[in-house]
TrEMBL record:
Protein's cellular compartments: Cell membrane
Name of the protein in question: ABC transporter permease
Bilayer topology: Multi-pass membrane protein
Organism for this UniProt entry: Asanoa siamensis
Domain ABC transmembrane type-1: 72-272
Predominant location category: membrane
Protein family membership: Belongs to the binding-protein-dependent transport system permease family.
Amino acid sequence: MRSEDVARLLPTGVRNAILAVLLLIVLGPLAYMAIASVSSDLAVARGALWPDGFHIDNYARIWSTTNLGRGLVNSLLVAGAVAVVSAFVALLSAYVLVRYAFRGRIAVLRSLLALQSIPGTLLLLPVFVLFAGAATALGVTIIGTRWAVLVTYLTFALPFSTWVMVTYLRELPPELDEAARVDGASPWRVLTRVIAPLSWPGLVVSGVFAFLLGWNDVLFASVLTNPDTRTAAVELQIFGASQEGGALPVYGQLMAAALVCAVPVVALYLVFQRYLVAGLTTGGVR
């Protein structure tokens, strides 16, 4: 069915009205956050929809009110490492699962889907006990370091990232591998010189998913980090919780901090938008 045929399913007026409502639902809260971030705390507290004055200094005060700068650095380090490692390991795993036939391959593929059904809250206590026991046995500090949350996020990101890469690599014809092997390329060279360059959309999708997992998590990061290794999401959660019960919460600074935390994610989407669309449709980049 052509796009023109799809467009005719709804009248133009109805289609535009639906799009307008969806845009309002999505952009409305973001617009209010932007307005509240430059409003006075009193104006936000009384529910004003437009600032009585533009208080740009809210964006300057958040750096001294909360440890947001250190949280952003920790989040970038942890989430960035999770994205890179997850995409790389997923590519290796998916290549083996797609190109080679071995006993247990179907079971591994099914387990990748089964692991997605396990809620993270169910694993919080076992992960904590496992890290505590490993720290005691090895005589090293694990809980409270970035390595603890990095390893934890990888356990959740790798199954999904691997499944994304399996789906994408299935679209690449095996003749590409055979042609490279005829020219004398080793399996590693085939993977790095032929498959990997053609898999950029899938790698971007898996990497962005892993990055968002590390960037947005509060549950594991609040338990496995200390004040020096807290991520931006935890710092923002602590900042918001500290406003409860106060004389006048600093709503303007809270909204400004939330928008600052959203900037890296928005920038990531804008930079990799083309690859994200191609990777999710497994149709390649045109």
